[in-house]
Structures are given as structure tokens and as C-alpha cells.
């Protein structure tokens, strides 16, 4: 078994032993979606007031399903991942690994892999809960949803890497990440789904990373026109974020 395999198993084990991180990764998107469906009045009624034939026959809660996928992206990429790396920096793990054949880069790779798997798991759980418990519609284009979700995941992990690159402690990483995450929930449409936003606000939200992810996933989910602009926005966030994180990363 290679060193990377061992580290991946270790990181996965640590995640399973952390109730808060496990909840944020796997349960939070589904819980938020189910609360929208069962607690907030009117979310299980048909969409009205929107002049879009592609939304005919959909309920308000249906619009929240792709948004729940973005919640899975943000909760892992902006909170769990930076907190884990900040904790390793605080404990001197990154510095100590730098003097061993394992190297600190492998722990970063293992944490990224475990984070990616956990956010995919959170997305699957949220989607399954929506379809089984709320009777939500499945995606119109599964392939486009998968491609869009993958690109969104890379973009969000790149953004989270900036926090992970500089945060001195797990607490500071979690605090910064949570602030960015809460702000991103608004642009993602958690409070008001994208199709129900005013057009100026929707345009602005589409240029934020989680807003672009939400709009592109919604377009793929409901068979709307190909979200070329939103996908380009994700790439525009991804490349500079990854470069900045790489250039500013602190090992100690």
C-alpha cells in the first residue's frame, strides 16, 4: 500500500470520527433541503409569477434540489477542508512531514480526495432525499449535471484552498470559511431560488462562484439553455484561486 493510500484511509477515518465535519459534509445539504420542503410554507406548491415555460409543472421545492448540491460543495470546500489543513498547520503536522519521505504534499492530496468524495456523498444524499421524500424531479441531463458539478467542485475547492493556504489555526480557518459560506448561500439561491430572483440580482449572483455553480446546475437539471457563461465564470474563479493558493501556501 502506498503512502498516499494510507493517508487517504487515515483522513477518511478522521472524518468519520468528527461529528461536526461529517454532518456538514453528508447531512447538512439534505437537512436544509428537507426543512425547506416540510417546514417553510408554500415550497411544495407550483411555481407562479415566472414567465418561463421550462418551469411549468415544477414546484418551488423542485428549484431547491440543484441548490442543495451547491450547499454540499460549499460546506465541504469552505469549512471542512480549510479547517483540516489549518489544524495540521497549527499542530505542526505539515512542518514535520516536510522532513520525511512522505512529504507534506501527500497529506494535501489525501485531504482533497477525501473532501471531494465527501461532497459527492452529500450531494447524492440530498438528491436521494429530495426524490424519495419530496417527490422531486430528476435531472434532464445527467451528463451535464455531472460535468457541471465536477467543475464546480474543483472551483470551490480551489477557493477553499486560499483559506487553507493562510489560516494559522483550525478555528480561524473555520471562522473565515463559515463567513464566506454563509454569504455564498445567498448568491446560490438558498433564500430565493435563482429563477425567482429579480433579474439584476440574478445577474450579479451569476458572477460569484457558488452562484454560477447554482445557476449552471439548475440549467442542466431542468433542461434550460447550455450555461456557457456560468461555466466560464467557474473557470475564471478556479484558475486564479488555485494559483494564488499555491503561491501563498504556508507549511508552518
Automatic annotation (TrEMBL):
Keyword annotations of the record: Antibiotic resistance, Membrane, Transmembrane, Transmembrane helix
Transmembrane segments annotated in the record for this chain: 21-43, 63-86, 107-136, 142-165, 172-191, 226-246
Bilayer topology term: Multi-pass membrane protein
Cell compartments where the protein resides: Membrane
Alphabetical GO biological process terms: response to antibiotic
A molecular function (GO) term: ABC-type transporter activity
Signal peptide residues on this chain, from the entry's feature table: none
One GO CC term on file: ATP-binding cassette (ABC) transporter complex
Residue ranges of every copy of the ABC-2 type transporter transmembrane domain listed in the record: 6-213
Coiled coil: none
Protein name per UniProt: ABC-2 type transporter
UniProt organism field: Brevibacterium linens
Amino acid at each position: 500500500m502506498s503512502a498516499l493510500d494510507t493517508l487517504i484511509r487515515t483522513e477518511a477515518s478522521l472524518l468519520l470520527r468528527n461529528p461536526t465535519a461529517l454532518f456538514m459534509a453528508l447531512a447538512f445539504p439534505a437537512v436544509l433541503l428537507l426543512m425547506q420542503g416540510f417546514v417553510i410554507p408554500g415550497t411544495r406548491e407550483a411555481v407562479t409569477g415566472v414567465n418561463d415555460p421550462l418551469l411549468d409543472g415544477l414546484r418551488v421545492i423542485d428549484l431547491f434540489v440543484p441548490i442543495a448540491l451547491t450547499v454540499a460543495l460549499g460546506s465541504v470546500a469552505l469549512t471542512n477542508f480549510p479547517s483540516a489543513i489549518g489544524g495540521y498547520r497549527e499542530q505542526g503536522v505539515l512542518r514535520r512531514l516536510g522532513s520525511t519521505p512522505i512529504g507534506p504534499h501527500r497529506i494535501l492530496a489525501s485531504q482533497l480526495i477525501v473532501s471531494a468524495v465527501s461532497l459527492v456523498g452529500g450531494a447524492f444524499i440530498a438528491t436521494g432525499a429530495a426524490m424519495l421524500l419530496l417527490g422531486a424531479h430528476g435531472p434532464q441531463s445527467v451528463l451535464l449535471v455531472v460535468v457541471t458539478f465536477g467543475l464546480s467542485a474543483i472551483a470551490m475547492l480551489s477557493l477553499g484552498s486560499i483559506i487553507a493556504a493562510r489560516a494559522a489555526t483550525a478555528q480561524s480557518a473555520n471562522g473565515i470559511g463559515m463567513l464566506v459560506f454563509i454569504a455564498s448561500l445567498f448568491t446560490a439561491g438558498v433564500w430565493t431560488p435563482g429563477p425567482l430572483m429579480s433579474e439584476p440580482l440574478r445577474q450579479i449572483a451569476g458572477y460569484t462562484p457558488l452562484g454560477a455553480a447554482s445557476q449552471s446546475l439548475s440549467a442542466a437539471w431542468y433542461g434550460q439553455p447550455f450555461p456557457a457563461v456560468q461555466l466560464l465564470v467557474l473557470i475564471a474563479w478556479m484558475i486564479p484561486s488555485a494559483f494564488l493558493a499555491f503561491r501563498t501556501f504556508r507549511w508552518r
